[in-house]
Predict the 3D structure of the following.
Amino acid sequence: MVQLTTRERDLGAIILIALAVLGIAMAAAGRNDLLGIHGAMVLLYSLVLLFVLLSGAFGAPPSPGRLTRYYDDPIKIGVGLTLFWAIFGMFIGVWAAAQLAWPSLNFDTSWASFGRIRPAHTSGVIFGFGGNALITTSFHVVQRTSRARLADQLSPWVVLFGYNLFCLIAISGYFLGVTQSKEYAEAEWYADIWLVIVWVTYFILYVRTLARRKEPHIYVANWYYLAFIIVVAILHIVNNLAVPLSFAHAKSYTIWAGVQDSMVQWWYGHNAVAFFLTAGFLAMLYYYLPKRAERPIFSYRLSILSFWGITFFYMWAGSHHLHYTALPHWVQNLGMTFSVMLLVPSWASAGNALLTLNGAWHKVRDDATLRFIMMAAFFYGLSTFEGSFLAIRPVNSLSHYTDWTVGHVHAGALGWVAMITFGSLYTLVPAIWKRERMFSATLVEVHFWLALIGTLIYVFAMWNSGIIQGLMWRTYSPDDTLVYSFVDTLVAMYPYYIARTFGGLLFLIGAIVAAYNVWMTVRTPAAALSLDEDLPVIEHPGATPTPAE
Amino acid sequence: MPELMHKKLERSATGFMLAIIAAASVGGIVEIAPLFTIDDTVETVSDMRLYTPLELAGRDIYVREGCYACHSQMIRTLRDEVERYGPYSLAVESQYDHPMLWGSKRTGPDLARVGGKYSDFWHVAHLNNPRDVVPESNMPSYRWLGTTRLKLSDLPLALRAQRAVGVPYSDEMIENAAGDAYGQAMPDSEQSSGVTERYGEATQVSAFDAVMTNVTEMDALVAYLQVLGQLTRAAYENTAAPEQMPDPDN
């Protein structure tokens, strides 16, 4: 089914054997350290993949006709991985939220304590769910918008399985206590190096596919995917420069210290939001929205403005995470200024999306998939407004360190990132598996309302708790002393912690409904859909496609 | 015209990628590079000391357990924070922190100046079960730290790696790292005098977890918590007044 040629299969086997050897080396060198456990995991992972690869080795050779079609097999696996990580990451999130209300839910174990499962949640949803969604949709979008097949058949699998190995090592590490504590970049040095290798492969594959395009212009969705791939590489490398204790130890120390480290970490952290959680997902918006609404993007000019605005302004905004700290004042002010200016390109994108729906609002009413995409654009506008607002120094003095930030992040993560992903998946799945529609439109509708209500409960709970706590911390009595002890403010949080757990639970149930619906869609027999419309352009029919230009 | 130029740019993948790199690089370069070159970014103080091996091990446990997810170590220049937690944090105080642990969320209170605020005994009781001392707390219990032996043999490597990233540990400190960690947690042992010799008289030598049979992770973590805010007195001598936020009631 995966259509690998003998040569590609051999090359794949060599890569996997090399990886298995690396796993053995890690396990041997790190036998007295947690690195050894990761070595064993690398070994097991590569052996399982090797078994899968070789089990098809004596099958029929792929038909030459495959080159006249898009290569969608990695996308199918990617959809499954995306949904797996969605459920895993959101489950850990609900669990972590519940622990804040009921601390005994860690069952007195080290691996399940809040500090360890919190990065497992954030990485599970950002890198597991979000990252797989980005890779999967990018393989779909780059082929369709370039009218060209992926440049080869091996590197998509290297990217997909390599990336998921990174997720596995990173997240299992947090449970074990392997972390460098950099927020949203907790993975240790060897996982970071592995991700660089995977990312370079991804970049080369993407550019080679773009080079084969049969359209003279690069479509706007690809601008965003390109920015996502390139800038994430820069951020990842700079933020993760570190010196390990030795090659036999998992532990490392970052080369950055103190105030410089704070700036590097939030330059990374905020732009992980920008280029992982915004740029890549805007790419989905720019492809799946016009596709689903069957209307062209409202304004080409707004697309250009917002793309370059986001690419340029975002990189300045990280220091708004460090207001009133020991970071020099001038950097804080620069961060605030650019964060406020960022509202212009952000709302240009959100507005461009919503205006694209003009003339298609009846479809928004009837089609829950399009409603997911519409709601995502709405939440994108909402959370970018909130982001610019929270970046203003006096506002930040109240909101920082409180749940308001957590609420803001989840308005973006649930309302924007997850909703655009589900909207895209519901468009992509029937297209890839050649089905007329999803298995159940009712379940998409159910999922939409679970997601929306869950998000609203979550965000409102966190707005309330954040603002209440921020105000309590700074409440003075008439005789000019602080009124509330820290514990007083914690007690006030409990009702909201319970409410947010419930909101998150609804969202998780929605993701499970989605996974079931996708599974049933895949299982229903394919409709006799005509393939003619969904084919790459081949210049000389019958000949092997060659790169354009 | 700009639109036409962009139409041209869109036709070249290489040109487009270079434009992305150019646009995205400016902000980081302008904001990060000067932090290394402008001298008053980090204050110069004379009394800044290094973490002892035991404190560094405790810091690594703090990192491993993700304590930073709920506790900040950065007192902002705001009046209510200064009154609640102590003098606001200075850049120099995290000068040797690889990585910094300023944090971003206070589910629990700030810990930048928690050192010396509570007894060792309180910390051990609190880490064993926070609700024994603070009934309303939602912090996890860290009972197993008291029964897990600290891996002393890795400490010379840890100090060496710290030196590689710029922390001025001497050869002597690196050689004696394991012994110094042992000595700091065993006040009656012969190694304990070496710790104060190498790291200063103010270093706290104590049976942190009150158990003298071996050095546990509890010893290390409590030693670290007790040194937070104690590496230099600079913040207490700093006289600039914190900013006052407008009172929402007025």
